[in-house]
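Subject line: Sequence and fold of a protein, written as structure tokens
Area: Proteins and the way their chains fold up in space.
Start of record: The labelled sequence and token lines come straight after this line.
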Amino acid sequence: MEPQLAALCNPRLLHSPHAFLPKATSTSSSSSSAAAGGEALKPRPRLPPPQQQQQQQPGVSHHHHTRRRRELGAAALASLCAGIEALAAEGRHDEARDAFRGARAGAPFTPLPASTYDALVASAAALREPGFAAAVLWHVESSGFEPGQRAWNRVLRMQLACGMLAEARQVFDGMPARSEATWGTMMGGLIDAGRPRGALALFRELWEEVGGDAAPRVVVVAVRAVTALGSARAGQQLHCCVAKTGMYEDQYLSCALIDMYNKCGKLDEARRVFDGVPQKSVVAWNSMLASYSLHGCSEEALDLYHSMCEGGVDIDQFTFSTMLRVFSRLGLLEHAKQAHAGLIQRGLPLDIVGNTALVDLYCKWGQMEDARNVFERMPIRNLISWNALIAGYGYHGMGQKAIEMFEELIAEGIAPNHVTFLAVLNACRFSGFVEEGKRIFQLMTQNQRTKPRAMHYACIIELFGQQGRLDEAYSMIRKAPFIPTANMWGALLTASRIHRNLQLARLSAEQLLAMEPQKINNYVELLNLYINSGRQTEVSKVVNTLKRRGLCIHAACSWITVRKKDHRFFFKDSLHPQSSEIYRKLDSLLKEIKQLGYVAEENELLPDILPDEQKTSKVYHSERLAVAFGLISTSLSTTLRVTQCHRLCHDCHKVMKFVTQVTKREIVIRDGSRFHHFKLGTCSCGDYW
């Protein structure tokens, strides 16, 4: 049962030390009991002394040592405080801590300037050292310094950053006055410490104290707590409180609600909040776009993006990074280029994340020159940037360039990770570089941190299978230091199907069907093998298994984007307004390629045709219709880019190669297994997929 907000905000949690204390913390219980008694705050400083002071020199009396500590004059103390502030401002927090030791030893009861305490609090929070934080607070109290409201809020943040939840709660309870920032800080610290229920309990106390007049920024923190819990019901109750108090005009609160519903999987509720915002900022638009993108609702995200542009809202780097994922899924290269140009015109350069996403987008759709240009112009690159470019070269059959980039990466002293090795092994697989693949795989085995995983074994298995070396491929499965995965058996099944090795194919299929009994592609692979081998008895057995398990081959579709509009096609599709022209063009193309020697493939199960249509003509596959439409709708120099969710059949693969010869066009098809880059009668896959 999903917890309700009232149950989550049990007031008894407010006074229960177990709601806030760190688990298995010995110091927490003692400090909590002190707080319950209302005693003044006296945390014991745990700051270790400098190494040279740990051993007192023999013959030096305690009285002399005390007198020497107090010899620090006002001028020297002021100079030391100025040094502490400068070190903290420069981020040299370790040195600021060491300098504080001198001030603490030379003037233990002399109050320091407020700016110095602020610097020390900031350094302790940055270092996350509880001992340092306790020593600073001890000095504040022992010197008689009286912090103001803002200073106490900083102390609270320091303790929360150092994981001192019990001590922070003591400070919070002992504060004479608490502002909205105080409540928000304490609640935020509990959320960051993994205690969202405690944060909601604190919010309930505030709500009852102020009579429902809580500040919007504090409500934002409460929404964060609900988001951390993942409780949609509690979120809806909190949303009702917001609606009753009319806080919708606060942009931060609206965006927090959108994010909360997004992470709870309630996209309709998120959109309702978004539509109810009177003046939408770019942050609100970005929040809703990110929600759609995260849940794979690419078309909804694209529609919202168009509305954003039509409304005159200026996109920023976050908008672009979010939409790049959408453009990549839908293959909208022109949209990505226009958005990128808009950013450049407004002087908003992309960060490393946006640039890497742009490289990845261009790579996925075969624009390798554009991808390389973006990569070369990046002011800063990380390993993910290199991996994206190497993978792009590999997917489009440019194995040699992928290997060159891999070697350049190593020459620059960057350590490759498992993703890097997977990208370069895929490049060897797609380009048929067996020896290079074996060498790189051997490199992985020599480093304990990059020991090959199942995905790397699957690459090598498919690489061997592509060259017909099935014994070596099967040997890799037998020698693997772990239980073979579905990807490994799938690679062997593909190789066995292409090279028509029934024994290995049957073995692989049995293993796959045991692991993935509901995956239709495994049955299709096996059916194609039996059909091509003329084994009708085995075909009937597989078909009966499909029927018994209630599985069938669903109709798939292909789509192409022309002038920023998606056009979808199904097998023998007649719904498109230009159907007559499309079919005339396709029939004309088939006549031309037959004159060049095209002969249709027979005996293949067709992935985009329903079972009862398998015996009908296959000349009108969805990808052929998409290409024919692209040819009549674009200029002669335009590369056609088609996306489909199923595996490209052999006959369509052959047709595409002939079409590129006849039309002198490039065609890129992204099917369910990989990219196929057709150019002048050849394909980047090397006829192995």
Q: What stands out?
A: Residues 557-683 form one domain.
